[in-house]
Write a structure and sequence with these properties.
It contains two helices and ten strands. With 150 residues, the protein is of the alpha+beta class.
């Protein structure tokens, strides 16, 4: 008989905890809709625009052969598939607008949803992205990489 009173109390406790969680989540959702900053959408909107003119991103020596370097602040990724052959692309993923974060295993990788792109062509290899990364022109000028969006 002692189990009968505990069983409804446990059920009430479970229901009350669940209701509190739902109310807390609802309050969080309501408050997050009113937030004035700090959301991913705000971060994307406030990020600098892709350059329209040629831009020097840095020394060519910073881009490893068989790898690449992401210039996050400029939204550019430069790769060097083979010695002296440089390729440049927009670092903005074509899926949801996140900035790619690394070049690894011959792939340009996006951290947001797992899209990856061929480091030589910018073509989509896997993930939710369906379009390739936009290609840019790149040249070595005085030892520095000069990238021009096309």
């Amino acid at each position: 008989m002692s189990e009968a009173p505990e069983s409804p109390a446990a059920s009430r406790r479970t229901v009350l905890c669940g209701a509190a969680a739902v109310l807390a989540a609802g309050g969080t959702v309501a408050l997050s809709g009113c937030a004035s900053g700090g959301s991913a959408t705000t971060a994307k909107a406030s990020a600098p625009a892709t350059p329209k003119e040629p831009v020097v991103v840095g020394p060519a020596a910073d881009v490893p052969v068989g790898g690449g370097k992401v210039y996050r602040e400029k939204k550019i990724v430069v790769t060097q598939p083979s010695a002296g052959q440089y390729e440049a692309f927009s670092a903005v993923c074509t899926h949801a607008g996140c900035v790619v974060d690394k070049v690894e295993d011959q792939l340009i990788k996006c951290p947001c949803h797992g899209s990856s792109f061929n480091m030589s062509t910018g073509a989509r290899v896997e993930g939710p992205a369906i379009k390739p990364l936009p290609e840019y022109q790149v040249a070595v000028d005085g030892g520095n990489l000069k990238v021009t969006p096309v």
